[in-house]
């Protein structure tokens, strides 16, 4: 996995996260929302997230 300098990320449970560098390793990601009317950052989601097998069983 190599760092994508354009995508900072702190989601260390994601298998694409470079924990020590706080970056994503994917070439691109998809961001979406789980809300009908998103108004704050918490309304958005990285839909490219995949759980590390070591974290999520
Ligand atoms: S896929 Fe999304 S959640 Fe996972 S490291 Fe990349 S930006 Fe973070």
* Helicity range: under 10%
**What percentage of amino acids are in beta strands?**
15-25%
Question: What is the number of domains?
Answer: 1
**What is the number of helices?**
1
Bound heterogens, unique: iron/sulfur cluster
Query: What's the count of strands?
Result: 4
Largest sheet: 2 strands, antiparallel
Helix/strand order, N-terminal first = EEEEH
User: Which ranges are low-confidence, i.e. pLDDT below 50, for 5 or more consecutive residues?
Assistant: none
Q: Can you list the strand order of the major beta sheet?
A: 1-2
- Structural category is mainly beta
Radius of gyration: 12 Å
Average pLDDT, rounded to a whole number, is 95
Distance between the termini: 21 Å
Features:
single chain; 57 residues; mainly beta; two-stranded antiparallel ribbon; two-stranded antiparallel sheet; 18% strand; globular; binds iron/sulfur cluster
Describe this structure in words.
The chain is mainly β and 57 residues long. The protein has 1 helix and 4 strands; from the N terminus they run ββββα. It has one helix at residues 53-56; strands at 17-18, 23-24, 31-33, 44-46. The strands form 2 sheets. A two-stranded antiparallel sheet has the order 1-2. A hairpin with a 4-residue loop joins strand 1 and strand 2. Bound molecules: iron/sulfur cluster (SF4).
Secondary-structure topology with pairs:
Elements: E1 17-18, E2 23-24, E3 31-33, E4 44-46, H1 53-56
Antiparallel strand pairs: 1-2, 3-4
Bound molecules: iron/sulfur cluster.
């Amino acid at each position: 996995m190599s760092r994508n300098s354009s995508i900072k990320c702190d989601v260390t449970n994601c298998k694409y996260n470079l924990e020590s560098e706080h970056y994503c390793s994917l070439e691109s990601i998809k961001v979406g929302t789980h809300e009908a009317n998103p108004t704050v950052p918490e309304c958005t989601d990285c839909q490219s997230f995949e759980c590390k097998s070591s974290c999520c069983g």
